[in-house]
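Data card: per-record layout.
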Amino acid sequence: MSNPFFKNHGPYKISKIIKSLNLNIDNSYNEKKVHDIKDLVSSTKNDITFLHSKKYKDIAKKTKASFCLTTNALKTELPESCIALVVENVLVSTSTITSMFYPDSINDNFDETVLSIDDTHFKDKVSFGKNVLIGSNVSIGSNCKIGHNTIIEKNVVIGDNCLIGSNNIIRNTLIKNYVRILDNCTIGKHGFGFFPIKNKNFRYPHIGIVLIEDNCEIGCGATIDRGSMSNTIIGKNTYLDNQIHIAHNVKIGENSIIAGQVGIAGSSIIGNNVKIGGQAGISGHLKIGNNVEIGGGSGVIRDIPENTKVMGYPAKNIREFLRDNK
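The structure for this 326-residue chain is written out next.
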């Protein structure tokens, strides 16, 4: 699911996209229109995608996109139906094209549309504290409560029977039913994505959202970034402790428990029934299987298969860790 909140300014002719990347390509498909930019999995024949790492070559072979930004070394991993556009830096080029389609997704300025909840139709529907602000394009279900000094910025959907605590800032987020978000959380803001180019940092657009499924609890001080190209997802009945950071594109499965001060870097996938101890760190683009237990203070730098218990840095099987640390 792409972000329903950012306007897509496409379609664009592929000739315009090629020109924006300063590519010198002689082709017979200049008039073909591209409707969107998406990841390898969700792309259709009307889309352009990107492939920047051999880690995703198996997925790339199945992509339905008509065009793909990639490198000379990786272009052979694409199906015949997908035309490779070879670029010097795939991620920078992807950022450039994403900015064309979604120019409103680059910056994350404060929401100027907010009003006091007393001046909205929610005043008779929601139980709320003092200094609550509501932005445009916001929907709130029945039997919800919102604490003091909380700002529900633009583009938020909140389901039924939700508790939103005090001092929270939420935007670009879909919250399902029976969700509890405790105090001092920031959810749905731009992730940590940029490229240093010639002594200047080039911001990467984030067009995804945060999706929080039913019966979740988000602890105090948590920060959950919205996705860049896909969505950041917290699965059903998953509980996050205080002071946790979930980076862009992270996907956490159902019935997981994550203790305080855990950090999960971008695009990592956490399975169902996973338990993570306090102050553990998980590197980006990893896959943690179902029923995994990660000990507190661990540093995870590689994939972990399901039904595994690990601990230490780098995280290893807990029996091996205990043997090595007698």
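Known properties of this structure: Residues 90-101 form the longest helix (12 residues). The mean pLDDT is 93.

See the next section for split statistics.
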